[in-house]
């Protein structure tokens, strides 16, 4: 779901509630159970769904309602032979006319030897654009409101060829239509309709015990997206992404997690396809896309503590940078990120999260399902 610029007091109130929460049944528990909240997972009759709606308000979208849903299922007769498959759906609509929906599905087959991964999105949301590069991002007069209709579809198939080691093949397609801006910062050629299409090749090592909320294990992945006119793309460029995540269970109730993320763009990439710093997953606290350039490097360290079966908190610290090329990522001072978050276990190890992140002269609140990484 789109980041939600709601009051910090909401987050702090939720954290206080989590610490003093009672284990007794209440009208809140009853309401949440109607939405699919439970202390166990039952996939014997199909998909075990949980749904959580919530209001939001921010200057770009006005007042709106968002919905986050997660479903767990298994396509196998022996459900213990592979991890549970997951599908998550997030959506929102607001008084400004903005709307969006996103779907993320991960299907695991026998012995986890084969995975089917599908992501799809559709949105029409006003967003701000500052320009390309760190210097442009820090000049407030560069701020331009841009609107566009965006469609995206990313299917992948993963095959396990060594223990915990996968090769992935797939595609990445995005359509940008009806782009417009409220200034002349972007010229007409930069606002024309565009279609991006890439062949995707990835290699990853994944030993996490549960992808949605890992307690132990690691993920190391290298992904190459080759956008080519031969595949129907309007422009040719390459995108390389490297992601390393590690999880360590310090105590029965506390997990230490850390991540390093790097991305490099080579070729004739349009401005909206450049590496954008800031999201609900990493560099929380920054407006997504305020800082954008050809290369990005970031890291974060997060402590996750569970107070009881339902309620928990996290705290994180990290930093990141953008540059015209990867050689320049260490040449300037990194941007900081830090914050706290509240966790509510809607189902076992499936958390609803409310995060308050701080950056350089910026802050943001995020409402999402599943951990940031």
Could you please describe the fold and organization of this structure?
The N terminus is likely disordered. The protein has 2 domains: 84 residues, no CATH class; 257 residues, Porin, CATH 2.40.160. It is 7% helix and 55% strand. It is mainly beta and 373 residues long. The chain starts with 7 loop residues before the first helix and ends with a strand. The protein has a 17-stranded antiparallel β-sheet that branches.
How would you sum up this structure in a few lines?
This protein has 373 residues and is mainly β.
How many DSSP E strands?
19
Sheet bearing the most strands, described?
17 strands, antiparallel
Ranges where pLDDT stays below 50 over 5 or more residues in a row are 1-13, 15-19
Tally the structural domains.
Answer: 2
CATH topology of the largest domain: Porin
Helical content (DSSP H or I, runs of 4+): under 10%
Look at the structure and give the CATH class of the largest domain: Mainly Beta
Termini separation: 15 Å
N to C succession of SSEs: HHEEEEEEHEEEEEEEEEEEEE
Give the averaged pLDDT, no decimals: 89
Describe the global form.
globular
**By CATH's scheme, which homologous superfamily of the largest domain applies?**
membrane protein fhac: a member of the omp85/tpsb transporter family
Which structural class do you get from the secondary structure elements?
mainly beta
């Amino acid at each position: 779901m789109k980041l939600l610029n709601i009051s910090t007091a909401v987050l702090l109130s939720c954290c206080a509630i989590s610490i003093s929460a009672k284990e007794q049944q209440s009208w809140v528990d009853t309401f949440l159970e109607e939405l699919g909240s439970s202390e166990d997972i039952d996939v014997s009759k199909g998909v075990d769904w949980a749904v959580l709606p919530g209001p939001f308000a921010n200057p770009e979208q006005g007042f709106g309602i968002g919905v986050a849903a997660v479903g767990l299922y298994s396509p196998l007769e022996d459900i213990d032979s592979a991890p549970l498959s997951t599908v998550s759906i997030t959506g929102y609509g607001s008084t400004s006319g903005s709307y969006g929906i996103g779907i993320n599905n991960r299907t695991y087959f026998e012995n986890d030897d084969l995975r089917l991964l599908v992501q799809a999105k559709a949105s029409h949301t006003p967003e701000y654009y500052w320009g390309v590069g760190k210097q442009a991002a820090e000049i407030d007069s560069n701020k331009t409101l841009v609107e566009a209709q965006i469609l995206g579809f990313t299917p992948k198939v993963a095959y396990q060829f060594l223990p915990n080691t996968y090769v992935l093949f797939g595609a990445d397609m995005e359509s940008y239509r009806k782009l417009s801006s409220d200034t002349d910062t972007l010229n007409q050629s930069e606002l024309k309709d565009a279609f991006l299409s890439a062949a995707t090749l990835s290699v990853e090592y994944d030993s996490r015990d549960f992808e949605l909320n890992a307690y132990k294990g690691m993920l190391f992945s290298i992904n190459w997206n080759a956008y080519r006119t031969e595949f129907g793309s309007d422009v040719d460029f390459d995108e390389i992404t490297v992601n390393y995540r590690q999880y360590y269970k310090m105590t029965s109730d506390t997990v230490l997690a850390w991540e390093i993320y790097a991305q490099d763009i080579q070729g004739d990439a349009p401005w909206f396809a450049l590496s954008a710093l800031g999201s609900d997953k990493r560099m929380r606290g920054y407006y997504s896309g305020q800082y954008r350039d050809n290369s990005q490097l970031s890291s974060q360290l997060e402590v996750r503590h569970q107070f009881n079966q339902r309620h928990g908190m996290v705290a994180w610290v990290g930093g990141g940078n953008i540059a015209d090329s990867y050689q320049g990522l260490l040449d300037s001072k990194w941007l900081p990120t830090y914050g706290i978050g509240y966790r509510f276990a809607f189902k076992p190890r499936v958390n609803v999260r409310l995060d308050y992140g701080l950056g350089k002269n910026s802050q943001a609140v995020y409402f999402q399902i599943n951990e940031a990484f």
